[in-house]
Design a protein that fits this description.
This protein is an alpha+beta fold. It is built from 3 helices and 10 strands, in the order βββαββββαβββα. Helix 2 runs antiparallel to helix 3.
């Protein structure tokens, strides 16, 4: 799947609309789900539409090989293509929705869609003093068709492992990151992180991070599994 043509170095600046991240804003009892909160309707989006607004773009040439893309959020719209793309893979994984009802847990889910490699999701949950990591791998490709579930595992974590992850999330300033897609490119990967607790919900997507606090938080979840993924494949 070709996303948006990138020439040289692309930098994206988003003008963010002040969406509320209160879970109460998104709770919707009309959404039909099964006993695990997995949506029954395959057309049901996995994210609130307000979290992925469309943006207008303006290309600014910096040099012969470098461009800057200045973008502005178009208020009152949403990027239907992106939401449907991400949701298609989560439907194939039979993952639960995270925004449609209040919960007594704290959950983070990292969905990893690499253009040419198997889609994966890592969901870490805390309920009282119990910590669990779930992960799923599909046999398709993140930029094409999702395929079917190939791997589905869980692991009981220690409080120390949970705390280390939360410290990384805090360093990334996740709850204050730009909503929706914060960068774009081609033939890379989408690193989508959701977070939900008793009061708030948020989702962000970063294109092909290779370092930094957000990358470290996502990569830490990968490291807690038994998946063998080379550094070259962590794009």
């Amino acid at each position: 799947m070709r996303h948006i043509l990138s020439i040289g170095i692309l930098t994206l600046f988003l003008t963010q609309i002040g969406f509320s991240q209160s879970i109460q804003k998104f709770v919707d009892s009309k959404i039909k789900v099964d006993s695990l909160n997995v949506p029954i309707d395959l057309k049901q989006p996995y994210f609130p539409k307000e979290m992925f607004p469309e943006v207008s773009t303006d290309w600014v040439k910096e040099s012969d090989s470098s461009y800057t893309i200045k973008t502005k959020v178009i208020e009152g719209t949403y990027d239907e293509f992106v939401v449907n793309w991400y949701s298609k893979h989560l439907h194939a994984m039979k993952e639960p929705l995270l925004f449609n009802r209040k919960i007594d847990k704290e959950i983070y889910r990292f969905t990893w869609l690499r253009t040419f490699d198997k889609p994966m999701a890592f969901r870490i949950e805390k309920r009282n003093d119990r910590y669990i990591l779930y992960w799923k791998v599909l046999n398709g490709a993140g930029g094409y068709e999702p395929g079917e579930i190939e791997i589905e595992r869980l692991k009981i974590l220690t409080e120390k492992e949970w705390t280390e992850f939360i410290q990384l999330i805090e360093k990334a300033d996740f709850w204050n990151m730009d909503l929706g897609r914060s960068s774009i490119g081609t033939d890379g990967s989408e690193w989508i992180m959701e977070g939900v607790n008793q009061t708030n919900y948020r989702v962000v997507s970063v294109w092909s991070p290779s370092k930094g606090n957000f990358y470290n938080a996502c990569n830490y979840l990968i490291s807690l599994t038994n998946l063998k993924i080379s550094e070259k494949k962590k794009y």
